[in-house]
Structures are given as C-alpha cells and as structure tokens.
Amino acid sequence: MRYFDFHCDTIYESLTKACDISNPDFHITPQKSAYLSPYIQCFAICVPEEIKGDNATRMFKEAYHRLVEQCKKFNISLIKSSEDIKTVAENRGKGAIFTVENASVLAGKLENIELFKEYNVKFVTLTWNGRNELGDGAMVSHSNGITPFGISVIKKLEEYNITVDVSHASDRLFYDIFSRSTKPIVATHSNSRAITNVKRNLTDEQFNIIKNKKGLVGLNLHKYFLNNNPNNVSAYDVLKHTEHFLSLGGEDVISFGADFDGCELPDDISGIDSISNIFELFLKHNYNEKLLNKIFFENAYKFCENFDKY
User: Residue 175 falls within a domain, yes or no?
Assistant: First the structure.
C-alpha cells in the first residue's frame, strides 16, 4: 500500500525520550509501517512554547540530527529535493521529510532561515497554538494576526521554496498569511470546522482558499478534531470530514497529516498500522481506488514533486 503523510511528532518524541523511533509505544515505528511501500512521512519538530530564543533553535538542530541518525539506522531516505521524492516513489522505499511546527525556532532572527535551507526543511507553521515573534496561534484570544517579523519570514520562506503551513494559525493569522503569500499554502494536519467546531479546524472558506492556491489539506486523526463528542469518536469520523471536503471540490486537495505521536487517537485507530484499515473502510463506503490513491498518496506526492519549482 502507498502512503504519504504530512505530519507526525515522532521525531520530537524520539528526541525528548532519548530513544529510537522503533519504540513500540510510538504510533509510528519502522516495524508498524513495514507494509507501506512507498511510504513518505513528514517528521515535524514542534518546539514547546515555553522554550524560547536560542534554546528553541538548539532543539531544532538536535531534532534534525536525530532524524538523520534514525534514517541511517532504519534505512529511510532523507528527502532533500524533488528528485529524492521521485526516487523513493519509484523504488517503493521509505522517505522522511523534515518540517517545523512553530517557527519560534528562528529565535526572532531572520538569518536563521538559512538553517531551514541547510537542514532541508520543506514545511513551516509560523506558530503553534499561542503567540510568538511571528504571530498568533489558534488559541490566542483577540488575535492580532501576523507581526512585521512574520511578514518578513513569509517572504524569505518563499524565496527558499519552503511552503507555509497554516495549521495552528489563528483565523486572523490565516488570512494575513493568505494575503501575503504568492505561492501555494498547506494545512498539514487540520480537519473541517463544519464537522467538528474547534479552532484548529478549517472553515469552508479557508479550505477553498487553500484549494484555489493549489495547496493541500492533511486529514488529522486527533479525536478532538474528528468529533464534537470525542467520547463517541471512531475511524468513521475520518470519512465524514473527507466527504465534506469532497463536497467542496477537494478531490485533488485532500491528503493525510495524521498527527501520529502528537495526538489522542480514536479507540479503533492504533497508529500507522491502522492506515490500511481506514483505506478498507473507505472502500466499503463506495470510494473507488483511484480517488483513494489520490487521498492516501498521489495528491501529496504531486505537490511535493514540484518542491524545486515552487
């Protein structure tokens, strides 16, 4: 089975718990994902909001070196370019993309974006849920949106072909990013607010903006983003969010950003080993394989094979 996932926190867990990604308690391990071929996974470093300045930058560097080490240990290709994406797909291999969740890792210094280029970062959220030097996240009351530094960062990211990720952005920050970006934007791990009314999910208007900018939206498996009553959540709720996005014309927009190792899963989803079960659930509800291949792999692959063009 082919699978491409835009977001997990596994490398953060590996770093902070000082263990390999083979830890059986993790949602993603090389063993659990062995049946996926090809399999491309974005590994995010999410620096906690209480870690600031140079300490945040240091943690970002440590996470990258941990990812390099783990890729070598478990025969995973570290993806640096569009050509690497194609090679992994053609050889039905395993690939890792390094991403940033919370650009506080820049420590307020525009020159630190050079590190993003050096460390092959491909997606960056400006914030997590709170406020930082770039703007206001989804849980900030009375958001002020983007800061002058955040505006400078967007411009620089686009110069380096690094895609801005609007997951975790407040609504005001989302529209500030949209009005200032000249390239596609993505929401790597966000669901539909029309189905589950939480601030971390996307409104229909926001989804359509991403669609019209030729971006992508990754379905998130966090149970609190799947159902307004998380006690009743199941894999079937993934289907509900997918159907809603499809009703908005999202056939070429939907992908996965499961948020493995960074979320609480429904009881009937255990981790990466459950992806095939979700695929089968979709098939039972009359989704054809062509559409499912788009959602589970091709949409993300086609976006990322154009990294260098962006």
Answer: yes
What SS3 state is found at 294? Answer: helix
What pLDDT is stored for residue 306 in this prediction? 79
* E strand map for the chain: 3-5, 39-46, 77-78, 94-101, 121-125, 163-165, 186-187, 216-219, 254-256
Q: Is 88 helix (H, G, I), strand (E, B) or coil?
A: helix
Query: What is d(CA 238, CA 220) in angstroms, rounded to the nearest whole number?
Result: 8
In a domain, 105, yes or no: yes
CATH of residue 18 = 3.20.20.140
- Global pTM value: 0.97
Q: What pLDDT digit, counting tens, does each position of 164-195 carry?
A: 999 999 999 999 999 999 999 999 999 999 99
Give the length of the chain: 310
Given a cut of 80, is residue 309 above it in pLDDT? no
Report the number of distinct structural domains present in the chain: 1
Report yes or no on 15 lying in a domain.
yes
Q: pLDDT by residue (tens digit) across 242-283?
A: 999 999 999 999 999 999 999 999 999 999 999 999 999 999
- The whole-number pLDDT of residue 310 equals 54
Contact 252/290 with Cβ under 8 angstroms? no
Give the H or E element holding residue 70: helix 53-73
Do 138 and 168 touch, CB atoms closer than 8 A?
yes
Query: Looking at the domain assignment, is residue 310 inside a domain?
Result: no
Contact 82, 306 (CB under 8 A): yes
Query: Helix or strand or coil: residue 266?
Result: coil
Enclosing domain of residue 298: 3-304
Residue found under tokens 């199941």: 234
DSSP state string for 201-249? SBPHHHHHHHHHTT-EEEEP--HHHH-SSGGG--THHHHHHHHHHHHTT
Helix (H, G, I), strand (E, B) or coil at 1: coil
